[in-house]
Write a structure and sequence with these properties.
Elements: H1 2-7, H2 12-37, H3 48-54, H4 56-66, H5 83-89, H6 93-104, H7 112-119
């Protein structure tokens, strides 16, 4: 019993320190509650139109980032495909090798159908 009693025996300085710490915590909680409960957007001067304008900049920035760009289809010459370009196009290494062997003979690919016949990709 004496062990438990010794935990609750404080000197005058300790008691005043505990009381002041408790008082600081309560004041911080009250200030936090007052700040959180205060509604910054509601006042007599704001109308629904003005509230809408407050978030309009954010809406515009979201729209700006969400606009999808249309890609321009550029002319493509399959005669000069490198290994990297072929890989990026999704061609297998066998198809790229077939095209390179065809080009080594000095011939050119002139149509899409001819390209498919040479690379044997359908």
């Amino acid at each position: 019993m004496k062990q438990f009693k010794s935990y609750f025996l404080f000197s005058r300085e300790h008691r005043s320190g505990i009381f002041s710490l408790l008082l600081v915590v309560i004041v911080i909680q009250i200030v936090f509650f007052l700040i959180k409960s205060r509604n910054y957007f509601s006042s007599e001067n704001t109308t629904p139109d003005k509230e809408w304008l407050l978030v309009q900049n954010e809406i515009d920035s979201i729209k700006k980032h969400s606009i999808k760009k249309e890609y321009e289809i550029k002319p493509f010459n399959p005669n000069f495909i490198t290994d990297y370009k072929g890989y990026m196009l999704g061609m297998s290494t066998v198809e790229i090798d077939r095209l390179h062997k065809y080009r080594e003979t000095g011939k050119y690919v002139n149509s899409a159908k001819e390209f498919q016949q040479i690379t044997k990709s359908f």
